[in-house]
From TrEMBL:
<dbReference type="Pfam" id="PF07007">
    <property type="entry name" value="LprI"/>
</dbReference>
<feature type="signal peptide">
    <location>
        <begin position="1"/>
        <end position="19"/>
    </location>
</feature>
<protein>
    <submittedName>
        <fullName>Uncharacterized conserved protein YecT, DUF1311 family</fullName>
    </submittedName>
</protein>
<keyword id="KW-0732">Signal</keyword>
<dbReference type="InterPro" id="IPR009739">
    <property type="entry name" value="LprI-like_N"/>
</dbReference>
<feature type="domain" description="Lysozyme inhibitor LprI-like N-terminal">
    <location>
        <begin position="28"/>
        <end position="120"/>
    </location>
</feature>
Length: 128
């Protein structure tokens, strides 16, 4: 499933690189085509992933301030969460296998779960 999404992006991104608009060439405020919606969903997931990486770095600093065991527990949890997110979104996307909407479903799911994880991590480590 991820392979199919990557293949789809392989064909979409070169043409998008030479388009005007956002980095991907899609007008995400007014996306009308499936191609644009797929690219915008991918961009949104990448932004969510950057936010999560920022929060993870901050949370790891907080965790290390508590103890090495706390930092290791966070590292282990995050390493387990990533395959969970990918599998959960694969399960959603597989229902649309072969359809042009499949990447949109996959990337939207990954964005949603990534943002959810970011907020959970922020809430837990802000308390400490």
């Amino acid at each position: 499933m991820i392979r199919k999404a990557l293949i789809t992006l392989t064909f979409l991104l070169p043409s998008a690189a030479f388009s005007e608009g956002t980095d991907w060439g899609a007008d995400c405020e007014n996306a009308m085509t499936q191609r644009d919606m797929n690219l915008c969903a991918y961009e949104a997931w990448m932004r969510a992933d950057e936010d999560l990486n920022d929060i993870y770095g901050w949370a790891m600093g907080v965790a290390k301030g508590r103890s090495e065991a706390t930092a290791e527990a966070l590292r282990t949890a995050q390493r387990a969460w990533i395959p969970y997110r990918d599998a959960a979104c694969e399960a959603e996307g597989i229902m649309f296998e072969g359809g042009t909407i499949q990447p949109l479903i996959l990337f939207t799911c990954k964005e949603h779960l990534t943002r959810q994880r970011t907020e959970e991590m922020r809430a837990v480590y802000e308390m400490n």
